[in-house]
Give the backbone structure.
Amino acid sequence: MARDDRTEKATPKRRKRARERGQVARSGDLSGAVVLAAGLATVALNGPKIAATGAQSLREVLAQIARPGRATTAAGLNGLMHSALSVIVTCVAPVAVACVGAALAAGVLQVGFKPAAQALQPDFRRLNPASGLRNLLGANLPFEALKAIVKVAAVGLVAALALLPGLTGLASIVGVSPRSLGTVSAQRALAIAEPAALAYFAIGVIDYFWKRRRHEHQLRMTKQEVKDEVRQYGVSAEVKAALRRRQMQAARARMMAAVPKADVVVTNPTHYAVALRYDGSRTAPEVVAKGKDLIAAQIRRIAEEHDVPVVADPPLARALHSSVEIGQVIPQELYAAVASVLAFVYRMAGRRSMIAGGGPGGAASAPLPRNKRLAS
């Protein structure tokens, strides 16, 4: 179906399914900018401590190297290794923790804290070169290319504007002590990195809103899809169950109301009951009611209350119950068996009429049954 037909906003059900598959509006540039800002802030706050720890470790290493006999032993090498590892952990751990926390916070702020287990499952279709090339060269290629160019140009321009004013003062740091040189270098680096991070953050915000707009467009639905989804998911399971119960009760009530109009009820005699009617308007008798156990007992009770003949014929009752639905005529292979039952019913009805009317010549002779044609 053409994408132009998708004019309706996504329903909550469609959004939920997309989220379960990991399809959300998330900007990698915005997350990267937040991580970069968190890393720079951590380095700026812990810079003196990191520098002091590194300097102390360097002094210890040089002191051990000055004593070759101790540095070349196993104990000396283990000491150097432990010292280096402790320095690495002390210097890197705060920055790493801040970056990981910033990445998680950026993801939660963009898409909320709702992990999707389905998105973590391996999908080998993502390794298909054809689909990857199609995504790379798809409709988003112009925007992605323009975004990359603007990102590099904006960050580079901001960094250059922060760097150029300080070039004239580089001669003043010639001959300063190493400690002062480190301080000046750190200040210059932060002066360049902070504006660049702000520019990167602005690009990430723009990219996030673009990704959100694109995601909403991809989730759009056609009018027919919305109707189908409302029809399928518009009501809760409890309401659907209640509707089904009411429908079954109404159908059962209609079925029971048709029993008094039946010509005969064929029974098992206890487990099955099938009510038949034949008025000549259809090619064969019609099943107007059927049931098992309790429903069969109710059919028999209503039939007896309205003087509808009840005939026990277990094979025929089982065959009718299993092969004919309510409102359908009996199949041709059951014509003979049903005709025998109807003939028996008509004979019994005729005898009762003759007895009630005073014999064959009585004035109250009953008319022929309306469905005598099939029975004969």
Notes: Residues 240-375 form a domain with the name from scop fold (CATH 3.40.1690.10).
